[in-house]
Amino acid sequence: QLTDLLQQYAAAFKDPMMLQPPEWFKAFIYCEAFLQLPFFPIAAYAFLKGGCRWIRTPAIIYSTHVATTLFAILAHILFHDFSRSELAGPQTLRERLVLLSIYLPYLLIPLLLLFTMLCNPHYKHVEKRKRK
């Protein structure tokens, strides 16, 4: 049933990367499985507990990594010639923008996290002074 759902999604949104991912996309999937997914429970713990300033560096690493991968995916959606693909891909600007809208939240949320880690005074590093 999950494969049927995946095929329905790929057909409805013209996303051939889900059914026949390019090699670079597969590399992003492995990064997600082995780097990003382990981060989620750690981050959930830190944010639910509150006051965990140690999450700043892992969150910055996570968010910049995800944003970097999403820039490549979004560029592929906007500029790739899908007419050569075996599976239906977006052809018109509207179809590309619809597919882009599916992936865009995966960029916006890490950027919001990055902005929070860099700009929120709670997470800014405070230098400890040595007592004399």
TrEMBL record:
Its main location: endoplasmic reticulum. The lineage of its organism: Eukaryota, Metazoa, Chordata, Craniata, Vertebrata. This is Sigma intracellular receptor 2. The chain crosses the membrane at residues 27-48, 60-79, 99-123. Residues 1-114 form the EXPERA domain. The gene is Tmem97. GO terms for cellular component: rough endoplasmic reticulum membrane. It comes from Toxostoma redivivum (California thrasher). InterPro entries: EXPERA, Sigma-2_receptor-like, Sigma2_recept. PANTHER family: SIGMA INTRACELLULAR RECEPTOR 2. It holds the Pfam family EBP.
